[in-house]
Write a structure and sequence with these properties.
The protein is α/β, with parallel strands linked by helices and 286 residues long. Helix content is 51%, strand content 12%.
């Protein structure tokens, strides 16, 4: 039996990954924030799933969860920690509130480090352990490498997560613990619907309001080519099982246009391409 801890398993990538790993014989400890979700998933997945009730920003709840896991696995150790829990919010950087901006970092960055630090001993980050070192898999985004308008808070948190992951991987080499980053593009999860809902109002009463229709049309277009969540869960499974995993796994539908070009072209070229895509024009004041 291999034991895995995954944050944020109630929906989306976390849910699909937990379901897949349980089907392949893993025991999954999955974090949820609501008791109702814990009961629902326990009924669905049975004895190979143990719900953990905590928010990634709640120190005491995380410590209690670690104790719960430790009492279950004994001297076996965790095979992996998958930091999946995260939040998403759209808004121009000129007007997004600082509390909203901070909240994204609290969950998407500080929450990852919070959970990782707590679970590190169970992954083998201590002397004289009797089990093989585990792996850490951080769910980032293509937004962790490429920044787009109105996603500034989210992409900033994911850019920071990329740096955090690289540093962790280079520091944890003394324990043999590997750190792997998964970088999905747009995935068919509830986040897409949240993006559509937010678009309807976050540009209201801003100078970007005149571009609202173009942005909504772009989101609708992106939604049609969103990746199936099963593709992400398969990639995560591969990163767990392969003897020599890559440090990063970008998973995107339009690899050339959506991944290679934005990172290879000069930044000013990318600026112009994005402005054209969104119909941005200089606003003339009277």
């Amino acid at each position: 039996m291999k034991y895995i801890a995954i944050t944020g398993v109630s929906t989306g990538i976390g849910y699909a990954t937990a379901a897949r790993l349980i089907a392949y014989g893993y025991h999954v400890f999955g974090s949820v924030r609501r008791p109702a979700d814990a009961d629902r998933l326990k009924d669905e997945w049975g004895e190979n799933f143990t719900p953990l009730l905590f928010d990634v920003t709640d120190d005491n709840a995380i410590k209690m969860a670690v104790s719960q896991v430790e009492s279950r696995i004994g001297e076996v150790g965790l095979s992996a920690l998958i930091n999946n829990a995260g939040i998403f919010k759209l808004g121009p950087l000129a007007s997004i509130s600082l509390p909203d901006f901070r909240t994204l970092f609290e969950v998407n960055l500080f929450g990852v480090l919070n959970v990782t630090q707590a679970f590190l001993p169970l992954l083998g980050a201590q002397k004289n352990v009797h089990y093989p070192p585990g792996r850490i898999i951080n769910i980032s985004s293509t937004g962790g490498r490429i920044a787009y308008p109105f996603m500034g808070a989210y992409t900033a948190s994911k850019h920071a997560l990329e740096a955090l992951s690289d540093t962790l991987r280079r520091e944890l080499v003394i324990y043999g613990i590997d750190v792997i980053v998964i970088e999905p593009g747009l995935v068919d999860t509830p986040i897409i619907n949240k993006a559509e809902e937010q678009t309807a109002h976050f540009l209201t009463n801003t100078d970007y309001e005149i571009f609202s229709e173009t942005l909504q049309a772009q989101i609708a277009k992106d939604k049609r080519i969103a990746l199936p969540v099963a593709l992400i869960s398969r990639t995560i499974h591969k990163a767990l099982e392969t003897p020599r995993p890559k440090s990063r796994y970008p998973v995107i539908s339009r690899r050339f246009v959506g991944w290679l070009l934005p990172r290879l072209l000069p930044a000013r070229w990318v600026d112009r391409l994005i402005a054209r895509q969104l119909g941005f024009k200089k606003i003339t004041t009277i």
